[in-house]
Each structure stands twice: as C-alpha cells, then as structure tokens.
Write a structure and sequence with these properties.
The chain has 203 residues and is an alpha+beta fold. It has 8 helices and 4 strands, in the order βαβαββαααααα. Helix 1 runs parallel beside helix 3, helix 4 packs antiparallel against helix 6 and helix 6 packs across helix 8.
Length: 203
C-alpha cells in the first residue's frame, strides 16, 4: 500500500489524495507538521530529500516528491492522463503553469492570509502583489473555461485536479471568486466528478 506524507490543509497534498480516491487506489496517510520542523528530520529527509510535502512512498518502498510529479505517476495509464501525445502535453502545460504562475501567488497568499498565525499582518505589504498575480491567473482560467468545460483534452484530467487544489480555496487567500463565473462553474463540475472527496478527507 502507498503511504502519502501529507498536511490536511495543503492544496498540493490534496491533489494526490483526490486522485487516489477517484482512482480507487488504496493508501494510508502520515501527517507531517511543517510548523514543527518535521520535514527536516533525518527520517523525513530520507523520504523527501528536498524537505517538501507531499511525498509518496510506493508500496515497493520507492519514493516520489513534488505534487504534480506524484499526480502524473498516479494517473499514468488512466483516463485522467490522455494517451494522445498532444492532449497529454496540454495537461502538462497546465501543470507547469500551475506551479510556476498560479500556485506561487494563490497558495502563498492563502498560507499567509489564513494558515500561518499572524501571517496576515506579517506579510501585509506582500498581499497587493500576490493578489495582482493571483487575479491575473484566475482571469486567464476564467477566459479559457468560458469556452471549455475542463482545462485540457475536452474532459476531466489531471490538469483539473492540479488546478482545483488551490483554486477552490482561493477565497482563503483574499481572492474574490465571485469575479470569475466560469471558474466557479468549473469548480462545481470538478466537485461533481465520481469519487470526488473534500480537502479534509483522509482514508
């Protein structure tokens, strides 16, 4: 059985939990408290040398880190990752964009706005930039989703799981999702997919 090293409130950790739930993959969760320094212990560094969660220990003992790498591994050979080379590349395109553009603004703003004690005051001067960049990312998604039910391949894929992770809780970073009707409609479609589980679900 796989073991996922995870934090309940992390969108990056939610991605593999959601994928495994929808694919019917059995796994167990080990909760890692990033606030206590647990990611820097020798035991954890042996699993995730870059000291990052999520990390996945496969049933055979091998390990993987980085949420989207884990997501691609889990969805390999399933309907969540297209077999067609172009459609598959479009999924990759969204996953790379999520980590390079979307997550650094929306996830970081959410961390300091809602998760880190005292963070909203500590990083008050950073929020205007995070909100500017995050709203630009949400606007791009909204424009794309105004003409598409899902992000890639004309169907629900790993791209939707990756972007759902932090988009559906963007309001917890001070973002107004009411400005993005196509994104809100997409969030509802994702939440209605078979096997969907909420962010606080664990097996």
């Amino acid at each position: 059985m796989h073991t996922l090293y995870s934090m309940r409130d992390s969108g990056n950790c939610y991605k593999p939990r959601l994928a495994m739930a929808q694919l019917g993959i059995a796994f167990r969760v080990e909760t890692v408290d990033i606030f206590s320094g647990a990611t820097h212990t020798p035991e954890f560094l042996a699993i995730s040398p870059k000291a990052r969660i999520p990390a996945l220990r496969l049933a055979d003992g091998r390990t993987l880190a980085e949420s989207n790498a884990i997501l691609l591994y889990l969805t390999e050979g399933t309907d969540l990752l297209p077999g067609d080379a172009y459609e598959r590349a479009k999924v990759y395109e969204w996953l790379f964009w999520e980590q390079y553009v979307h997550e650094p603004a929306i996830a970081v703003a959410r961390y300091w706005w809602s998760l880190k004690p005292g963070g909203r005051a500590e990083k008050a001067d950073q929020f205007p930039l995070w909100h500017e960049k995050g709203n630009a990312a949400l606007a791009l998604m909204d424009e794309h989703l105004a003409g598409n039910d899902f992000l890639a391949a004309n169907r629900y894929t790993a791209a939707d799981i990756a972007l759902y992770g932090y988009t559906h809780v963007a309001d917890e970073g001070g973002f107004d999702l009411g400005r993005y009707p196509a994104v809100r409609a997409w969030l509802e479609r994702v939440a209605n997919q078979p096997g969907h589980v909420p962010m606080d679900w664990q097996p």
